[in-house]
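[job 0412] stage=fold_complex status=start
inputs:
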Amino acid sequence: MTPPVSKLQEALHSGRFVVTGEIGPPKGTNVGPVLHEAEQYLKGRVAAVNVTDIQTAVMRTGSLALSKLLLERGIEPVYQMVTRDRNRLALQSDLLSAYVFGIRNVLALTGDHVAMGDHPESKPVYDLDSVGLLQAMTTLESGADLGRDPKGNPNKLDGVPQFFKGCCVTPCTEEVEPQIIKLEKKAAAGAQFVQTQAVYDPPVFEKFMRMIEHIKIPVLVGIVVLKSAGMAKYMNKNVPGVQVPEAIIKELSAAPKENLKKVSAEIAGRLVRQMRPMCQGAHLMTLGWDDLVPEIIREAGLAP
Amino acid sequence: MIVAERKPMDEIRRMLAPYKRVLVLGCGSCVTVCLTGGEKQADELAAQLRLAARQEGRDLVADADCITRQCDREFVANLKAPLASYDAVLSIACGVGVGFMSEQFPAVPVLPGLNTTFYGAGTVPGTWAEYCHGCGDCVLEWTGGICPIARCSKSLINGTCGGTNKGKCEVKQEMDCGWLLIYKRLKELGRLDELRTLRSPRDYRKDRGAGVRRLTHPEMAVLEEEPKA
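[job 0412] stage=fold_complex status=done
writing structure:
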């Protein structure tokens, strides 16, 4: 096997349970606060930090820039890329740029439709889908790109990148077979790790993990920190493939306001603890409550 | 068929404001079927325009006519009056008809009365839905006859995204997830292997990527040349 290209890959190969975090770039140029939070609460506690790419189609500073800024601060990024906004020329070019910057972990996503965001009148691109983006990465790694020269031969790259290629799956959707088929295709296209959509139901996740046993790539279970009972209800109603059980909603509604963050961390930590035997890691999506990460890791029994 | 919707009346009146003699020209094909651009709609629209002009105290001659197809030269001969006798023509054909009429009658402004929306079929009485995107590289063979280019809002080619929600699309709760329909159909047909097959990125040269598209039958082109020879 080729040597790992990133600390995240190394950690997952070592067999220990791996935790990743996530930051969202700001809408504007004020990157100070999010970088401060990452240094304060994520650095040294998680193996890598995902940087979302114009998440929910709300225009923001780019994930490539923030990934680079994390690297400069000694934090390994997972550069998220969606296929919604750029065609294959731009995506491949940005992959090479990322590599030149020292970025190695890349998460390939389709991306929420522009209709979900704050520029619904813009043109959705989707020249590639998430499988196509993984194929693009694999092709670049082979020293070629997706294009052809005038004679019809693959274009040759002058300098070849190597990535640790990730993808996403939604384990708790009602129709799970199409999700699994797509995951098989992502693995065949080169995906080396999976970070899942948010999971709140360990028994459902356990069943899902049994169904994907044949796909031999590490899975990090996704946990979106629940900030209130209202948010949990909202997610149940509006976020595809996310189901927060009633018991968790009750726990959140019963929590006094001053105690809400503590309860939120307890729930997330407990979920990680419960699902730890089923998968290879956890991906914590804190949506700005980054200060909870140390507590969640403690609750999960992963740190003293 | 091509489906088109009537432009808002305010927009039509703004377009026609500079003109005193206008012809509302219907088309007897697709837009007649989807009840937006046929003979009946041409008559109605001309009457509405006359009424609106009268209410404003403005002189306006608004006649109506309709030919079998505005996208075909042979039906131009059936026009009741020469188009050149009008200040402007409001075509309520699809964009093809507007463009083609415009080319045939360069002396008269031909304006669009409809917004051309999609290639569709009548699903239930009064409703037409999009079935084809005209992508130039038909994939229906391996998608159970359901087009992912037209019916997945992201035109994905490798299956559902994470936005599929209880059979619906993340874009709109009332819109079916195209890929879930394809999955169910392929499952019924015992052809899930088609869904499992890795599909490489599409060739957009066939879908406008290489510019304006054209279909030529060389043998017919020769026949057309012959009388001149």
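[job 0412] summary: Chain B touches chain A through 30 residues (CB under 8 Å).
[job 0412] exit 0
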